[in-house]
Specification:
Elements (H helix, E strand, L loop, with lengths): L2 H17 L9 H7 L2 E6 L1 H4 L4 E6 L2 E7 L4 H16 L17 H15 L2 H6 L5 H8 L3 H17 L6 H9 L1 H7 L2
Parallel strand pairs: 1-3
Antiparallel strand pairs: 2-3
Helix pairs in contact: 1-5, 1-9, 4-5, 7-8
């Protein structure tokens, strides 16, 4: 992924955590979407045309629809992914129905980055010294597949050891201080 796209998605996730006052895990995707005036609703695969979710405007209101038949962890990821499209500006001035096939690959990568950074913030995982996919999945209420991806990424981040080097990351991390103190191993 292009570093500029990576950086924008990462920074957007920190800003979202800050703006929404998130201070504990697991996060609450529906409440986060509501903070931005976006409604979340369950839908079925037929309405979603096989996709996990979509974001659209109906009568001037923005909705994120997600597959009601998928596991709860996948629904949480889908909501954050679709919110990422909105916050990263992929929808332009007038949000409209979006499908995975309508978005460019770099937009999908950016929204996936945003979603995992929201659901499993690296600085919080670092603050709790978590390393395994099992630990991450349990704490963050995410699928094992997402947790395995995050655990792999965390290996690189631990190796680099540059946590809290960005002002937004420090601010987001500081919101979790009480949670971190309460949940340290």
């Amino acid at each position: 992924m292009d570093y500029g796209i990576y950086k924008n998605a990462r920074n957007a996730s920190w800003q979202c955590l800050i703006d929404c006052g998130i201070s504990e895990l697991p996060i609450k995707p529906v409440q986060i979407a509501a903070h931005y005036g976006i409604h979340c609703k369950q839908a079925d695969k037929l309405v979603l045309k096989g996709a996990s979710g979509e974001i659209e405007t109906l009568n001037g209101e923005i909705f994120i629809s997600f597959d009601a038949q998928e596991p709860r962890q996948r629904q949480r990821y889908t909501i954050m992914h679709e919110l990422g499209h909105y916050l990263l500006g992929h929808l332009g001035d007038e949000p409209m129905q979006r499908c995975e096939s309508e978005c460019r690959p770099e937009e999908e990568q950016a929204t996936d980055k945003f979603a995992i950074d929201m659901l499993a913030p690296a600085c919080v995982l670092w603050g709790l010294d978590l390393h395994t996919a099992e630990e991450i999945a349990e704490l963050c209420n995410i699928s094992m597949q997402a947790a395995e991806y995050r655990a792999e990424r965390m290996k690189l981040l631990y190796k680099r050891n540059k946590f809290l080097s960005h002002p937004l990351e420090r601010k987001a991390f500081n919101q979790f201080k009480e949670f971190l103190n309460h949940n340290k191993n």
